[in-house]
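dude i think i finally got it to work??
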Amino acid sequence: MTFPILATVISMVLGLSVTRLLTGLVTVFRIRRRSPLDWVPLAWSAVLFMMQLQYWWAINQLATLRQMFQFGEFIFLVLMTLMLFLTAALLLPSRSEDETDGLRVYFEQDGRYSLLSLSAFLLFGFIVNVFGFQSSVASAWAVTDVPMIVFPALAFVLQDRKYYTSITALYVSLCALDSWISLTS
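look at this
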């Protein structure tokens, strides 16, 4: 399979993912007067948006590394992209009816499941980098990727607010560091 076909399919799914995230943000804006906001899902939304953009950038850089892909590689990359869509679809409410009790309640009941698909996306990316591109696990990106994979899953498991808010705050900083490493390498 050639790169343009791969990039087209991934861009379609990734575009839907970005659209879903932005739709969720518009829903949160529309219901702000009758439902309390919460910074935690909004912080995860910012992290997700940054990851969506970085992934889109990385996919478009693939053409410089390879022009042809096996069907299994194509399926794996599409599966990665679907994890981003799933994260966006679960993170924020898409209808104001879903948000009657506030953003915190929505996140604790349903939105937190998005953290599992985010961890899955990052784990798949780690696998692609190590096995697909033979990147060193001793590199700077790998040092930040391991906690980036683990922390969302940990925030999902630790349902106590004081724990998942601390992890969220730490994760925002870690994401900024990871972005800086990615942009400078």
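The chain has a mean pLDDT of 91.
im so relieved honestly
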